[in-house]
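User: New here, any thoughts?
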Amino acid sequence: MALLEIKGLKTRFFTEDGVVHAVNGISYDLEEGGTLGIVGESGCGKTVSVLSVMRLIPEPPGKIVGGEVLFEGRDILKMDPDDVRKVRGNRIAMVFQDPMTSLNPVLTIGRQIDEALELHMGMDKHQARQRTIELLETVGIAEAADRADDYPHQFSGGMRQRVMIAMALSCNPRVLIADEPTTALDVTIQAQIIELVKRLREDIGMAIVWITHDLGIIAGLAERVIVMYAGYIVERASVKDLYGDPRHPYTIGLLGSLPRLDETRKRRLFSMRGLPPDLIDLKPGCPFAPRCDYVIDRCWEETPPLEPVTLGHEIACWVDVKSSQPSKPAN
């Protein structure tokens, strides 16, 4: 049985302008010790989907309107608030995109980690402080005993992100969700953070969900990838299959926009035309149809389901991009 199973998850935001269809029935699972990448452009529902898993959607205006989130066989969406708090930060931890807004500016780094250890692990203040120093050393912060008494503004962006990872690891979680944790960092620090997470995964054996818009990061980190667009999963495959044989037009466009060292400089990077759809006014049919080079009449009428094209490789598309022909007849 999978450690984490997401089944038909749907999340909506009820605003004055209308209902935002942020997450539209997505399903995936995560094996123990595995790493799953979730990729897609800004606004595609990546972050909202994992915030839904963590029960961190603000209500109102947001609401999880359907689906199941099974963790160790229990549905998080049906737990009472006290049980959710025992899971969140303890069994499932999350590293957010911007550590400066996630850390409390008026508490020392050490106190913020101590608090989680006292709350979830039942440690006294001395035990918690010793564990905090160990965690800070684990994530590569020098002179950890002294730095534990510093405030967030006294750390660089990369160091703050290391603190967030230390905080997430404090209770030995079984699942770590990382929401674009390297977006605001320069490439050198980004590489250090990724190597740190890979090493910790091997040492601790936790499962990881890594959210990003950068397919280059996922290539060296994850085993499986899901590609999201307009709140839907449009492709799901192993890293090898996704990069070697992308089958959804959106994924092909994403990969075509990446500069590559193994090709000549004369190759122009691909640019997708148009804009992402308005999730308030989500029309029938495939959400990618207005931007797709392979569009057929059926794309405007029916939303394609996620179906296999090869073993372990699924796409939500009415067209076989290899032949430019419909992938299956209309009913």
